[in-house]
């Protein structure tokens, strides 16, 4: 066997001025929760700022990735200790799993194949089942620590409007358990994805973001596919959906899963369709079921299932401007029409639940009839499906399965809140996971922006996870820079939502960056930014010299006009004589001015 | 005299598939209101779509710009006909007007100097004075036609929430007059800027956007400075602020004004400070007054005046995270502290009004104490100044001066509405004009995005004009691409706001583009976009071949998975048998599914 060495194609190493730290558990002593701490200049006199870190070991300077081996199986012991799973000879890989790719076209299998686990007969191995049983799993304690980000040491500002969300001062493991038990949050973590660092999706926690990746039609290497996932998480993607189509779906997914520190979601229907050579009408329950097992054994953490698309809803889309824009939704609609019956997703939903229950695959109930244009938002078809998703939620919950609900799409600002309110009501507070929404249709090439507006707003109103949109949406496949732009844009939307909800401690990073700005600590300003590289690059384009990084002015105003410098002078005066004294001194100013002409009342 | 030929540095020519049209007036028969009409493919069977056009003659294929001559004086006759102005020998240009630039460093004077106009003694020549007198000026009829965009021929959707704004089905000249008379809208149009195509700023009209430009410290040519303005208006800037500092301020501004089809705003304090060599304490009312006259004679359409910063408010900023971030505000604060008295802006406000009244320069009452960080939003200092701006509004109105109010800045989402509501209340419904606001501080390099979220929201709530923010905000000076990105981003925010307010006809462009998307009319999709070039470029990066522009699928799904194609199949079926029949046929589907396990009620 050849030795596996580090793959240079994978981006590693810390972000600027950042250290990886690990916070130990208290209930469970073998958990180590990763965070990133950003240091500031000693003159700031500030402790390092902890920030949420979705990047996994790749940003740990001690870690050397060997993608042929995959990440350490962090959760293997936790899963084993529960004693409710068994190892078995998994399903054999078949030619159709990889779209019949052969020879040079076939991406190699991941070398270190593990036998899959499943629940022992009759057991539910979901975090929901454990939560309902009163268990605080290591996963739950992990996310509690992760969500807090040491917030106990940060002065917390609580002036947001959370629209009914309950954001505790401190997230305790018991709070996490309660939220999962109530179905208000999910902890997507397939027992066959032990490499995963647990995270939680629910409106009483930080707003999360998802990035979509997928194999290109042109051949791409394992390194490239793994790197797409690593790159997206480096900039902040909390989960990644693998939306690959075509050849090599199975093998590529294995490489991604074995190297992914974040939950991986898929739309199993895409692979099932490949297995029937793209003919929607040829899909069967058997093919679909086989695909679910295949993916569950690999460790996929959540499945998008478009079971809410029902036969009688299809005609509701005929009068729309853009019909059905969800790929999954349209495949199912076509199948339903052709066979003149309800889909196997709907009819066999309880069997799908049985599979999810045995591996802890979370549901992401797909919105197959989401609006694809402003004109179609909040229409009969969309809300009819949402009601069905609410019914399916109860069925899944009855089977101890974790559920979140997918949402739109294209929605003008004034119709966004109705989406959130209806979702909470119809789906019994199961977490909402939306794509944007885009607030106008007229800006292809800028749909990361049209959608960041809607995403920030729906995040504020209570949406738990925001699926990113890249600048290439509607036009082409995102490249590396587009993925980064999409992720950073969505981190902005999610953070803006956290601030507006009043998440304790969320403002700490804004304050740290603003202090750096006010004190002309340029390096700190870059380092505290969501994207330090771009911030530094933009600054250097105008003032490239190193000396300017310590200049007490900036390129916009230059030294003469600097408003911040003047504020420092004012502050210095106040410090000299005391703020109160200063205020008193100037308070008399209030009566100085008597206008020559009295102000007449005007319209 | 040398013949003046077209300057190649100026961007001219129509946007793709666009024709310039001119709609004649009915009340005034010498007005021709420009619009852009975007044509679609004949297969669409749709009339050309009229869109708002701020680009002036530069996008008219008949027009050849000669920047040494300037644009035609469109409004000269209208102004003359009113018989209330007189021509006079204007103020002589002085060395300090151009920052003492000489020789090669001095930008040449604009060659075709016109004697300035001012009001004959005792007259107010403002659109507000005319509106109050019951006059419908040509400017008013111009903006009425411009705002309508032929909306009488567009099926108008009215499902927005306008938060108390009154958006009529059709904008009549009389409606425009009433809005101006009530102070709810301004029509910035200095009598010495006859080249301007009138536009209106008020919450009962389309939301507008402003782009800032300025000379760079490094020398730049007249063509370059004019081109900055032309470039910003080409992409949709409704007004342009010239925030130049340093040398050549006077001469550069003259070149811009003579060639500008949009209102030009300035912060006169910047030039006044140059005249006293950057020493704030040395500013005097005489220097400032002289600068106002200088700029009013040139034709500046609106002045930012920071008269709301009062002595007793300065100590309120001491405890802030980022102090005073407005340049004008900090200059005035420094002056007030040094002289221990109220500023000449505040004390001489009525004399400033007299100047504005004689030339119809609109006020943009500056928010010198706006928050520069999330932490400082909606604080005592900010709202104290806002109340003073409300008092000043009444004084200006009493002098027949037009007024808008500047607003923040950095504000988290949950505090935005309070800004709008307080502004309407304190400032008696004078139009609001905000910078963003940015909804988080943590993304330098992406502040066009952090602020587009806030801008869209405050536009929806009633803000009349949004000042753009470019990706370089806080970091450096925007280049050409940054200006375009900023303008397009703000067109998105403004349009999202118009949609959410329910502006009649606003959705027509979204619908046209979405129909093009659904029908795979790729060229139409590009042409209807805010930025056709970028949309086309992004598409070509994935599917470059010309044939793909007519392909009935796109790069994201490929031919097999195309959801839209499947929708077309469904639609075809409905057309064959009738939608009603189709709905009936599938309605029975509603009862097919009986879950094996009844759904238990869960938390």
From TrEMBL, chains A, B:
It catalyses: 5-amino-1-(5-phospho-beta-D-ribosyl)imidazole + S-adenosyl-L-methionine = 4-amino-2-methyl-5-(phosphooxymethyl)pyrimidine + CO + 5'-deoxyadenosine + formate + L-methionine + 3 H(+). It comes from Roseibium hamelinense. Homodimer. Pathway: Cofactor biosynthesis; thiamine diphosphate biosynthesis. Pfam families: ThiC-associated (PF13667), ThiC_Rad_SAM (PF01964). Its cofactor is [4Fe-4S] cluster. This is Phosphomethylpyrimidine synthase. [4Fe-4S] cluster binds at residues 554, 557, 562. Binds 1 [4Fe-4S] cluster per subunit. The cluster is coordinated with 3 cysteines and an exchangeable S-adenosyl-L-methionine. GO terms for molecular function: 4 iron, 4 sulfur cluster binding; phosphomethylpyrimidine synthase activity; zinc ion binding. Substrate binds at residues 212, 241, 270, 306, 326-328, 367-370, 406, 433. Catalyzes the synthesis of the hydroxymethylpyrimidine phosphate (HMP-P) moiety of thiamine from aminoimidazole ribotide (AIR) in a radical S-adenosyl-L-methionine (SAM)-dependent reaction. Keywords: 4Fe-4S, Iron, Iron-sulfur, Lyase, Metal-binding, S-adenosyl-L-methionine, Thiamine biosynthesis, Zinc. The gene is thiC. One of its GO terms (biological process) is thiamine biosynthetic process. Residues 14-86 form the ThiC-associated domain. It is an enzyme of class 4 (lyase). InterPro entries: ThiC, ThiC-associated_dom, ThiC/Bza_core_dom, ThiC/BzaA/B. One of its GO terms (cellular component) is cytosol. NCBIfam families: PRK09284.1, PRK13352.1, thiC. Its EC number is 4.1.99.17. Belongs to the ThiC family. Gene3D superfamilies: 6.10.250.620, Radical SAM ThiC family, central domain (3.20.20.540). Zn(2+) binds at residues 410, 474.
